[in-house]
Amino acid sequence: MGMVYSEPACQSAYDGDLHRLHHLLRDDPGNLNVQDLDSGDTPLIAACRQGNQRVVQYLLEYGADVTLTNKKQRSCLHYASRRTFSLLDYLMIAILMPILLLGFFILQEKQRKNVALLQTLLSSEVEINAVDYKGNTALHYVCERKSHFLVPLLLERNADATIKNKEGETALDIATRLKFKKIIVMLKKTH
N or C: which end of the chain has fewer CB within 10 A? Predict the structure, then answer.
């Protein structure tokens, strides 16, 4: 089940309804950075939660503020970094893998979409080292989720791998604890 927002602009962004979002912004430009009463999400954060890359691109072109955070102090970059496969995705991949490797292609497409979403955000003035209420940066989340396609994108933008979260862990500590060897190598090259 998805999110339900009190702000129509946030809901439209989350749902990927670009047509409705366009009309909401045209009628009231203040909807661009409106924050939901419950979560504090903006339309940009809502779009990133759902991985709606077209909506994210539209909002950035419209001038959405990438520095705004929600009630958990998470920015749009945090949510783009937290994107991962759902249980349904894994089931589809497992079921379709034997059939002409369809599962593999689904996996590749999901990864490509996550990379495109992060690249879109990184082309803006997003704060690369913003920390949330847990002290985590986007780099912490991509390491935690073994997103080895996303780690280099953040490192290229000078993500600080030495920032410690409230648990006292750096991104390297997380990758080491979870035994993600490829990510460990990438992070060690930055030291």
Answer: N
Q: Which three-class secondary structure state does DSSP give residue 56?
A: helix
Is residue 75 within 8 Å of 67, Cβ to Cβ? yes
> Domain ends where: 71, 89, 105?
71
Which run of H or E residues covers position 89? helix 87-96
Number of neighbouring beta carbons within 10 Å of residue 49 = 23
Half-sphere exposure of 96 (CA within 13 A, CB side): 13
pLDDT in tens, 78-98: 999 988 655 555 566 666 666
Q: What is the rounded distance in angstroms from the CA atom of residue 105 to the CA atom of residue 119?
A: 21
For the chain, the straight-line distance linking the first and the last C-alpha, in angstroms and rounded, comes to 41
Residue 70: is it exposed, middle or buried by C-beta count within 10 angstroms (0-12/13-18/19+)? buried
Q: What CATH number is associated with residue 42?
A: 1.25.40.20
Instruction: Dump pLDDT digits (tens) for 115-154.
Output: 999 999 999 999 999 999 999 999 999 999 988 899 999 9
Cα–Cα distance for residue pair 47/77, rounded to 1 Å: 11
Domain that holds residue 38: 1-71
3 and 59, same domain (yes or no): yes
